[in-house]
Description:
This protein is mainly alpha-helical. It has a domain at 369-472: Arc Repressor Mutant, subunit A (Orthogonal Bundle). 47% of the residues lie in helices and 11% in strands. The chain has helices at residues 17-32, 51-64, 79-92, 102-114, 181-191, 207-216, 247-252, 257-266, 279-285, 300-313, 316-329, 341-348, 355-366, 374-380, 386-398, 404-418, 422-434, 442-449, 451-466, and strands at residues 4-7, 36-41, 70-74, 95-98, 139-142, 149-154, 158-163, 171-173, 196-200, 223-227, 230-231, 296-297. A hairpin with a 3-residue loop joins strand 6 (149-154) and strand 7. Helix 17 (422-434) runs parallel beside helix 18. The radius of gyration is 32 Å and the shape is elongated. The structure holds glutamic acid.
Amino acid sequence: xxxxxxxxxxxxxxxxxxxxxxxxxxxxxxxxxxxxxxxxxxxxxxxxxxxxxxxxxxxxxxxxxxxxxxxxxxxxxxxxxxxxxxxxxxxxxxxxxxxxxxxxxxxxxxxxxxxxxxxxxxxxxxxxxxxxxxxxxxxxxxxxxxxxxxxxxxxxxxxxxxxxxxxxxxxxxxxxxxxxxxxxxxxxxxxxxxxxxxxxxxxxxxxxxxxxxxxxxxxxxxxxxxxxxxxxxxxxxxxxxxxxxxxxxxxxxxxxxxxxxxxxxxxxxxxxxxxxxxxxxxxxxxxxxxxxxxxxxxxxxxxxxxxxxxxxxxxxxxxxxxxxxxxxxxxxxxxxxxxxxxxxxxxxxxxxxxxxxxxxxxxxxxxxxxxxxxxxxxxxxxxxxxxxxxxxxxxxxxxxxxxxxxxxxxxxxxxxxxxxxxxxxxxxxxxxxxxxxxxxxxxxxxxxxxxxxxxxxxxxxxxxxxxxxxxx
Length: 472
Ligand code: GLU
């Protein structure tokens, strides 16, 4: 059997981390079995589905690199097919028209509740209605098997048994003819030849109904794996109040997709005590059957730790690619001039926890800063810095090759000749070129800023010092 998995989000919001984890598991399963990963948009709830949400889901999948082999398929494009299957089921007698009025159903429900029974349709129209009322458009119900049990051999949960007596005859088409949710899932899973349904465990109760319908259609049900939900650090279901829950919020906050994927794969699954998994390793080692059946708690610090790990250890080109997005948000086009981005990443990656930090700390390489950090300027751009800065300016102007090593030599030699500690020169110089007293090593900083900008910024700093009020 070739593996065919699907991720089937309802487009009623952004792609959240729980959905992304489900998508990742489906994707990994397909990739490890040389199978096919399908994206299906379950947009039949016309009131809640939006085009923006579809875009947000597609963007999230692209950013994470979870590329799909088929789709996106939209359920709203498949209505004629659903009608066809409904007609077939009516013809084959696995579904029937139900004319029960709303009033009757409400009364039935109230009586069952009063008897402390689980409310369910009593099957009145199941044998057929001799004289269908002309003024009531019927719904279509599925003829659920009246007895026996449905056994779900869930890859994560193990065996879960549902008694058919607990399930009633589900409505598959409303009075206006529109198909209902559980039914569209069944038709799609059948038509798309889905072999493994990996989804959130909030759908576990739908599974026996869906399996019964698949069987009625002569189709062997897929294998199911219900993934437990994610909880916030406080044990409540992960939600907005715990911070970012949308995948794209993590992009905005400066995370690498690799960090989020790594974090999500480890949420409820482990392989010895290994914490870091490249995508290739995930494909090799991940085992859906070893995902824990209990809920998993979200730990933002661990995600941050992984992000730093990937910023430090990924290929420079990869980090640079993602950094360019954040520089763009600061109004910088790194392609329009300034240092090579890979060089910037190399210089910055030891100290940045996020790409937002890295972009903010690197902006001065590309554009002039508006103002000095006031505290740093007060500490370092003082009258005594005037002489070293002026001499540096001259020597740097003369420098034959603009390289970290040659710049280093100029700075250290000048410190020696003036009898100053290196910091007394490097710090004013740093504030002059970076706007503040924090940057990569001074020689690398100057090298990346470039000669022309360095000289201009030293002039600006000298001017700043000159303008300081003289204090006694
Ligand atoms: N559309 C459902 C959801 O977003 C998923 C259904 C399924 O995977 O079967 O929760």
